[in-house]
TrEMBL record:
Protein family according to the UniProt entry: Belongs to the enoyl-CoA hydratase/isomerase family. In the N-terminal section; belongs to the enoyl-CoA hydratase/isomerase family.
Protein name: 3-hydroxyacyl-CoA dehydrogenase
Molecular functions per Gene Ontology: (3S)-3-hydroxyacyl-CoA dehydrogenase (NAD+) activity; enoyl-CoA hydratase activity; isomerase activity; NAD+ binding
Keyword vocabulary terms for this entry: Fatty acid metabolism, Isomerase, Lipid degradation, Lipid metabolism, Lyase, Multifunctional enzyme, NAD, Oxidoreductase, Peroxisome
Gene3D superfamilies: 1.10.1040.50, 2-enoyl-CoA Hydratase, Chain A, domain 1, NAD(P)-binding Rossmann-like Domain
Entry's Gene Ontology BP terms: fatty acid beta-oxidation
């Protein structure tokens, strides 16, 4: 029938097979193939039922995201699914892997659905700034009711086949050969005399239920949890049409709302985020077939905050891991901490006690380097002190087997210097986890001067196994994320000295979309880390790099953040809710006075420019120096490690959206007004003058 969709007849059953690797996305060729195959099966008098099945790792994972923003090609997906549903012969979708977005919309336009137990189904369009645009908002509520459909469509989270079966999305759970299972199910339908059963004609789940109340509740939830997002409220409007309008009109309404989302800047940003994450794992000078070393066992040196979190990541991935500590007491404490961390998941209901026990069998504690002679990878997470790291790496060099990967979790020390403590710098790599390591998705994979290609490839593969978003970065102070966030933190402190308040600055950045503003974040992590950096910088930085003084004044007053109950905000006992700190105005005024600054009103727009443009300028310097491979990698780091809003695409995407000429011009003004920190990156200047974007690089 076509290259990607084939039609075969097995007795009275027509089998339509889609084979469009890697995820059977519904690009134009698949849509054409599906439409032609179903039409041909409909026209063939010997065909009594139709089975739809997919080759490869998954059922259709959705519309082809690469086609968004390009001129539409016929047949459209709505036309294809409406045609399938209208068919006069019973059709059966056989689901494995993930039936997502347009994939699920095709499945629910078939008259019956069967699935393997491991399959997942969902409508994740909202995560791309869209809504289901091929009948999903009209047909899913008819299958599961309005309230459940709203949950699924507005969260975008898929559900497992077993739950989908309980809800009535899936008719039967099957095992074994997919095509054979589909044919057997179709033959049973025919034997029982069952014909088409069109989802679009059903109303039983819509009638007699207070659908309006479900809609109002979801709207209120969105207003509270995701006020700045464009597509969620439109998802609700589309579902509302499912019970307020007849099917044909509901489908039309869905299409109008889908079109609005398609042209929204948030859709472009979210699709950028999706592809950037996948692109980040590709390393320019690393051929796809670079060999990867076997990683079946691991060790972590140092069982503190990070070490335990990292050990948990390995155990969660089914990889046995040893934690090496300085004493048997410290070793036992680390194991206890791992158990307590899992214990919290059990309390929250996200892990069973049995799973906890099973994971703990994978984590053991040791104090002797000789016990590490057989492990495949070691991650060092001891104190951030070069002398301590030197001793650790010398011991690893003396005890680990040849070929073992020796990784450091250092966040600020020179990885190349660490590698020199061993006789095998080619095996040394940075694995920079973020805190809490077992929760945060980001992993900066730090490539040292001498890191071997297969070690780098293996480090990226380890990240994937640990379910991290791994981004390769080069060696510099703070790597990519922390180097940039430092600029942002400093500028936000300067804004306090110029007239802003923590409430206003945090508020402006939250409105921009950040989950947390810089001051609430500072209070959470404690002000001492920033202070230590400041103290070091005062001794080393040339005089033209002015520094804010507000942190020092706060430290003098004992305001160190949540741990002291007071920082930029005050916290009532046992509460994490930030309340205005009455001591702060006097401190800020004293800081302004000391810096010779007259306090003034700051607009939200100005606050965004001063903080986000500081990130962008540093990002451009990082690109210039080759520390990050591409602008989109920087975006991935910011989206996954620093709570940057996905609907803004990341700092570099945001810069492109604002226009580099405008960003550059503002940075030049800041350079004039605020001095050396704002020296524009040469790359930014060049791109701005050439009318290009970071995305063009
Ligand atoms: N369109 C185009 N390419 C897609 C795609 C899609 N819908 N989904 C995945 N891909 C590509 C990826 O970019 C990647 O390409 P690469 O190898 O060149 O980097 C490749 O397929 C494999 O993807 P992953 O690395 O993500 O593979 P995983 O096995 O980790 O995950 C998945 C598979 C769960 C299917 C995941 O890819 C996914 O969630 N995909 C997106 C699903 C989605 O959002 N669907 C809705 C689309 S919008 C829609 O359907 C609109 C409709 O309502 C009209
Ligand atoms: P921590 O102080 O909580 O833990 C360090 C642990 O290492 C302690 O348990 C200590 O007993 C152990 N240790 C010290 N010397 C040792 C040695 N010679 N042999 C074996 N164990 C030894 O420190 P944390 O926060 O876990 O940081 C560890 C490393 O991770 C540092 O390099 C830090 O820069 C890095 N990092 C920290 C992040 C954070 O947010 N805390 C984030 C990312 C990286």
């Amino acid at each position: 029938m076509s290259d990607v969709v084939t039609l075969e007849r097995k007795g009275a059953i027509a089998v339509v097979t889609v084979n469009n690797p890697p995820v059977n996305a519904l690009g134009i060729a698949v849509r054409e193939g599906l439409q032609q195959s179903f039409k041909a099966a409909e026209a063939d008098p010997d065909v009594k039922a139709i089975v739809l099945v997919c080759e490869g790792m998954t059922f259709m994972a959705g519309a082809d995201i690469k086609e968004f923003g390009k001129p539409p090609k016929e047949p459209s997906l709505p036309d294809v699914v409406n045609g399938i549903e209208a068919g006069s012969k019973p059709s059966v979708a056989v689901i494995h892997g993930t039936a997502l977005g347009g994939g699920l919309e095709v499945a629910v336009s078939c008259h019956y659905r069967i699935a393997v137990k491991s399959a997942k189904v969902g409508l994740p369009e909202v995560k791309l700034g869209l809504l289901p645009g091929a009948g999903g908002t009209q047909r899913l509520p008819r299958l599961v009711g309005v309230a459940k459909a709203l949950d699924m469509i507005v969260s975008g989270n898929p559900i497992g086949a077993v739950e989908a079966h309980d809800l009535g999305v899936i008719d039967e759970l099957v095992e074994g050969d997919l095509t054979a299972a589909g044919i057997a199910f179709a033959e049973k339908l025919l034997a029982e005399g069952k014909g088409p059963r069109r989802t679009g004609e059903r109303t039983d789940k819509l009638d007699g239920v207070d659908n309006a109340a479900a809609v109002a509740a979801k709207r209120a939830e969105i207003e509270k949890k995701m006020p700045g997002l464009f597509s969620p409220q439109r998802c609700v409007s589309a579902v509302e049409a499912a019970f307020a309008l007849p099917l044909a009109e509901g489908l039309k309404r869905e299409r109008e709302l889908f079109a609005e989302c398609l042209v929204s800047p948030q859709r472009a940003a979210l699709v950028h985020a999706f592809f950037s994450e996948r692109q980040a794992s590709k390393i320019n000078d690393l051929p796809k077939d670079t060999p990867v070393r076997d990683v079946k066992s691991a060790a972590v040196i140092g069982g503190g905050t990070m070490g335990v979190g990292i050990a948990i990541c390995f155990a969660n991935a089914g990889i046995p891991v040893k934690i090496l500590e300085i004493s048997s007491e410290a070793r036992d404490k680390a194991l206890e901490r791992a158990r307590d961390t899992y214990g919290m998941s059990v309390k929250r209901g996200s892990l069973t006690q049995d799973a906890l026990e099973q994971r703990m069998t994978l984590i053991s504690g040791v104090t002797d380097y000789a016990d590490l002679s057989d492990v495949d990878v070691v991650v060092e997470a001891v104190f951030e002190d070069m002398g301590v790291k030197q001793k650790v790496f010398e011991a690893l060099d003396a005890n680990c087997k040849p070929g073992a990967i020796l990784a450091s979790n250092t966040s600020s020390l020179d990885l190349n210097a660490i590698a020199q403590f061993t006789k095998r710098p080619q095996d040394v790599v940075g694995l920079h986890f973020f805190s809490p390591a077992n929760v945060m998705r980001l992993l900066e994979v730090v490539r040292g001067e001498k890191t071997a290609k297969d070690v780098l490839a293996t480090a990226m593969a380890i990240g994937k196994k640990l379910k991290k978003v791994s981004v390769p970065v080069g060696v510099c102070d703070g790597f990519v994320g922390n180097r940039m966030v430092f600029q942002y933190g400093r500028e936000s402190e300067f804004l306090l000295e110029e007239g802003g308040t923590p409430e206003q600055i945090d508020g402006a950045l939250r409105k921009f979309g950040l989950a947390m503003g810089p001051f609430a974040m500072r209070d959470l992590s404690g002000l001492d880390i920033g202070l230590a950096i400041r103290t070091r910088q005062r001794q080393t930085l040339p005089a033209e790099f002015k520094l804010p003084v507000v942190l020092d004044k706060m430290a003098e007053a004992g305001l160190l953040g949540q741990k002291t109950g007071k920082g930029f905000y005050v916290y009532e006992k046992g509460s994490r809710t930030p309340l205005p700190n009455p001591e702060l105005p006097a401190i800020m005024e004293a800081a302004s006075k000391e810096q010779g600054i007259e306090r003034r009103e700051l607009s939200d727009e100005y606050i965004i420019e001063r903080t986000i443009y500081a990130l962008i300028n540093e990002g451009a310097k990082i690109l210039e120096e080759g520390i990050a491979q591409r602008a989109s990698d920087i975006d991935v780091i910011y989206l996954n490690g620093y709570g940057f809003p996905a609907h803004q695409g990341g700092p570099m995407f945001y810069a492109d959206a604002v226009g580099l000429d405008r960003v550059y011009a503002r940075i030049c003004e800041f350079h004039e007004q605020h001095g050396a920190w704002w020296k524009p990156a040469a790359l930014l200047e060049k791109l701005a003058k050439e009318g290009r974007k970071f995305a063009d690089l």
